[in-house]
From TrEMBL, chain A:
Protein function: NDH-1 shuttles electrons from NADH, via FMN and iron-sulfur (Fe-S) centers, to quinones in the respiratory chain. Couples the redox reaction to proton translocation (for every two electrons transferred, four hydrogen ions are translocated across the cytoplasmic membrane), and thus conserves the redox energy in a proton gradient.
Domain 4Fe-4S Mo/W bis-MGD-type: 221-277
Gene from which the chain derives: nuoG
Lineage of producing organism: Bacteria, Pseudomonadati, Pseudomonadota, Gammaproteobacteria, Nevskiales
Species in which this protein is naturally found: Stagnimonas aquatica
Catalytic reaction equation(s): a quinone + NADH + 5 H(+)(in) = a quinol + NAD(+) + 4 H(+)(out)
Protein name (record): NADH-quinone oxidoreductase
EC id: 7.1.1.-
TrEMBL record, chain B:
NCBIfam families: nuoE_fam, PRK07539.1-2
Keywords annotated in UniProt: 2Fe-2S, Iron, Iron-sulfur, Metal-binding, Oxidoreductase
Co-factor(s): [2Fe-2S] cluster
Recorded catalytic activity of this chain's protein: a quinone + NADH + 5 H(+)(in) = a quinol + NAD(+) + 4 H(+)(out)
Residue numbers binding [2Fe-2S] cluster: 98, 103, 139, 143
Gene3D superfamilies the record matches: Glutaredoxin, NADH-quinone oxidoreductase subunit E
Cofactor note text: Binds 1 [2Fe-2S] cluster.
Subunit structure: Composed of 13 different subunits. Subunits NuoCD, E, F, and G constitute the peripheral sector of the complex.
Protein family per UniProt: Belongs to the complex I 24 kDa subunit family.
Entries under SUPFAM superfamilies matching the protein: Thioredoxin-like (SSF52833)
Residues spanning the membrane: none
Name the record gives this protein: NADH-quinone oxidoreductase subunit E
Amino acid sequence: MAKIHVDGNTYEVNGADNLLQACLSLGLDIPYFCWHPALDSVGACRQCAVKQYKDADDKNGRLVMSCMTPASDNTYISIADDEAKEFRETIVSLLMTNHPHDCPVCEEGGHCHLQDMTVMTGHHSRDYRFTKRTHQNQYLGPFIGHEMNRCISCYRCVRYYRDYAGGKDLGVFGSAANVYFGRETEGVLESEFSGNLTEVCPTGVFTDKTHSERYTRKWDMQFAPAICTGCAVGCNISPGERYGEVRRIENRYHSELNGYFLCDRGRFGYGHANLKNRPTHALVREGDSFVTKHRGEGVNLGAQLLKSGKTVIGIGSPRASLEANHALRSLVGAGNFYSGASAQDASLTALCLKVLREGPVPAATIKRIDQADAVLVLGEDTLGTAARVALALRQAARGKLQTMSTEKKVPDWQAASAADIAQHELNPLFIATPMATKLDEIAAATLRADADGLAALGNAVAHALDASAPAVSADADTAALAQRIADTLKAAKKPLIVSGTGCGSAAVIEAAANVAYALAKLNAETAISLAVPEANSLGLAMFGAPDLDAALARLNGQEAVVLVLENDLSRRASASALDAAFAQSTVIAIDHQQTATTATAALVLPAASFAEGDGTWVNFEGRAQRSFQTYDPAYYDRHVATQESWRWIAQLRTALGQPAWSKLDEVIADAEAAIPALKGIAQAAPNAEFRIDGAKLARAPQRQSGRTAARANIFVHEPKATQDPDSPLAFSMEGINSTHAVERPAALIPFAWSPGWNSPSAWNKFQAEVGGAMKGGDSGVHLFRHNGAAPYFPLRAAGQDGLRLLPLHQHFGSEELSAKAAPIQERTAQAYVAINVADAQRLGIEHQSQTRVEFGDYSLSLPAKVRVDLPAGSVGLPAGLAGIPPLVAGAAVRLGKGG
Amino acid sequence: MSDTPVLKLADLPKAQGFALSEEERHEIEHALGHYPDGRAASIDALKAVQKHRGWVPDEAIPEIAKAIGISAADLEGVATFYSLIFRRPVGRHVIKVCDSISCHLTGYEELRDELVKQLGVQYGQTTPDNRYTLLPICCLGACDRGATMMIDDDLHGPVEPADVKAILESYK
């Protein structure tokens, strides 16, 4: 700690910070541009100048850049000093020389850091009367709009995109007053994290193109604290809604998870919630078509169907909330509830849960991954399965920069100096995966092998770390690499093992666990990160319910009523297996999407999308997080029957004369009571009774305009805002919006705003220390802790020979819901088959030639990608893409020439 | 600057199917040997191409970047930062007139006006016979010899407007 004196007041601050960070953490406003909590200081923009004095008696002082000056003990500064104020006003006027002042037509307007800083410095009128330099803009793909004239040359974009995210195709061109940020030639920005440019850029150069066509100012949108359902990392998001549509997704800061950054799948994949073909009414099958019914008719028909069934089973879903799954389980009875995950997904996820819950190694948060100083990635291409982890692994490698600059006594926030010291030095990252990954470029070593080879490497590393770990016979190269990895992990302070369900192999997950277990005996700081298939896979695994394959075996063509919850079964089981099992079944489907399953249902009940309902999700580290409803779809159309799945089930129960829940908190309490593993989920967020100063918390900014006129085109009568019985949040702008009144629980902050801070920089105001934890503590609750010790997993017999299926998880297109969003579709590859070069030569298959791929019941014709990095015997198919049926990793495949 | 013509991207010549020549490739590889990091060879590599072609076309950037192992965006940043890496075709001789403060005091404006008159082109332009390109430069480090200019690699100064014609004539 250090004492600093600011304008005559004395404060205790973190002496390791710079003055800007320290003052912002104190809640003092200093304007800035080039500094960013995740990007540190370069002193480029000169906006954060303050007056520094030698001591208490110095009356002259000198101007310093607060971001470049340490907050050392006994520092005397003035922010309010006239000369400093005038300097800051001059700087913003210079930065704005060529700025077009196009705020009324600029999509950054209303959440613009440049607007905020200009107001903060008191720069009211412009002196520059001459011609402004103008630029041509570039097409940057479906996600990002480009308007270079607004640029103030702060360099944040390239510092984020290139230095932080490892992107190669965004650069800075020209010099002096003619500087251009863009691509070398126009085209799609290649990074899977490009969307963060829209928040990193302090002005409107990079804006969210997916929001552009149906644009609404930030102050006119309604937000909620929500959880991304794009994968199991559980990044915190702020969806923004207007007129019953999700308009955009903003990052919602969480210091342990997403921090300031999301992946593009999560940010731009929301379009499924706005699809016009979503079911919005109860749909009753009559012959080959559906008839639209009201909610009550749907419930009554559903209850009749349930009553009529001798056998009634429920199939849950890893993409539905805990509450929805629990409601279904309690409706049909635990003995009739199935998880809805495929047998392979379910067993691999259960294995991950076992490793995390029963093993001695804690599950890593994203922050912990950032901090790792040696990493072994075994089998997982995290970019496809848990993308935010891939971005964190880059920070782990870059962490060398902090170590090296600290050794040289250079503060680690001195970004440019630290980068100069580190040059190309990186912390060791070992990547052993079936196929090349984008992270290979920063790896200390890579290994390409099939599941058996990866498991052998992992077990060899474990044995090298601890002789009591199972011994494995490996070839000389593998043994040498294993020894090198073991030595490196042993020497590390914060080693990390990354694996997961991605390559579909229990042996790989067990080998990764063995490495972590062995390492944990030597170093208590060891952590493990396991990617699981879907947003709520781990939560569903905690139900301990049998999987989808068990449900199909039970049905076996018999007469039954099957209630399918938010699940497109055609993505998880083959068409023939489903047809056979469901031959005599009557399906009630509750979903927010039109799917192959809803198409075959007798009754479809329209469920809430992630933006229309509340629910709890368990992420890949076992953290339960509450996602809150952003808007009520019925506010704009009172005929819409859409509601949370658990509400449908509650109404079915009532119609059946069973007791039912009326509020979310009741479902949660019931779930905790029924399933001991879920104990604690109530603590994920304050319950619906929570109030600040007796009031609910507003979902919309205070300046929201036209609330009373929003429905004027529908009916002249103005209804009151929808009441929310399930959360402490209020729809519309009515309610508490203050950042100051109390320390607001992080789980209840719908959007970042504080007086004078309209941009995402407003998160400063909610953090205990800028860039650190939230004032009220970070949200979510861990449902389990790792255990004291667990035995090593024994070695498994090698897999079978011959051509075997390997699912390849794509960042764009493999996840079911985001794949329905048009901008994501634009970035999704066409289906293909990846074949090892030796296999291709043996079979006479040419690169890019049409190839016959046969497995199970399927016979596909796909263009071949002949690859040298794919192990012989592995046949890769991009999971989840259009034209690719459900994949079982390790299944036998036959390949043949021609279509 | 009213005398700087507006750059129209569409007017730039396009080099189709660009490939580095053997000589260029050799010189770039030679430069790479001087540094532990390919990025450090950026300027040498750009200069090698400029030496042989007079300028560095857009299409050359990805090829040079590949040769030194950095991204095209990264190299384009270097290639657009330095004003002496020419990104448009230039004449056989490039005239660089010092417009910094010392030369301003010792007759820069007269020298510039004379050059413009003799050549009939403005800054940034090339004479129709492709003989001269006229460019400003911020300092030639010859303040004791102002007003100065540089033609190709030769420094001239002090230059009186009356000297201009003879100096120009010496560059065929």
